Amino acid sequence: MSNEPSAFRERNQSVDNSPVTETCLPQQSPEKTIAAQESGPVHKLPAEAPNGGYGWVGVVPQWFTSKRSLANGIASAGSGIGGLMYSLATNAMIQSLGIGWAFRILGILAFTVNTVCAVLMKDRNKKIGATQLAFDYTLFKRLEFLLTLGWGFFSMLGYIVLLFSLPSYATSIGLSSKQGSIVGALLNLGQGLGRPAVGMISDYVGRINIAFLSTFVAGLFCLVIWIFAKSYGILIFFSLLVGTVSGTFWTTIAPVEAEVVGLKELPSALSIVWLFLVLPTTCAEPIALELRQQRGNIYLHAQIFTGLMYIAAALCMWFLRAWKIGEIERVAAAKWKSPAEVSVVDIEPAVIISQAVGQPSSSVLRRLFAWKKV
Asked: Any idea what the Cα angle at residue 244 is, between residues 238 and 248, rounded to 5°?
């Protein structure tokens, strides 16, 4: 029998079983949770795939118009595939080389790949006349931009909890740490497969439409599947399924933001978005840890929190969609056309503002439920 006080022993046990031991860094996507077992305890390390940095998010949309979301989806799929490789490869490295050399190898790999990509990446800021202001405070005066910030804020609160808690949830229901690592890897696989599909569909159905629908579906999956997933098979099914839509924000943020503020102001808008995301990505997992219970389904409250955050993010996109339809109606009125005859999906917002006069022809309530490719 250990002489360690029971309270201290329980606290240590809680820390050992925690989904994550560190919070993510600003402007990075903490999409990869590496769970590996080495002589007993589980090492859970927040990691980045070589393409995990999101500096490319503002570059890719500058090179595309009609297939902008598909291009962004393919680019963002690299982090899902990279996360799958990182999860499995790091597990093997820790087993054979130890955690120290696993860190060194990951650092060397990330430095090498990111350096090469940074050298080869080329933007079109000069050609499109991008403002490139690090902090354009005038954007905060625009309601549509604040709605995109709300979408990102709530999405990240759910996204981080899902990524870091899912492998630990697997062990909490009696699965092994290896099975938990596989569950986390399959979540990344789902993202790698789903992001290009989300991008392709959004180009045809509407970027804001798909961003809204996919975000809502991610929350729905968490509430109706994850909470009741008590077996390895169902958890694998959930990981692959929710992975296709859980990272919708990263797939569509640049195309959506381009329609909200325009390509010229996109770099400035994304700079604020990355800064704004520091708060939810830092606090999400500590919130989930506080929501854990001592007995029963210890992750129940965290699961409900994750689902509700995704749904709150979807609500922001729902109102952004209504705003976009209103802009279409304003342009239609200026051109003496019906809204059905006007499509401004690929028109710069600056052009919309110069062409549009007056107020939208329909109410906000009607626009919330109206169908339009936006």
From this structure: 125
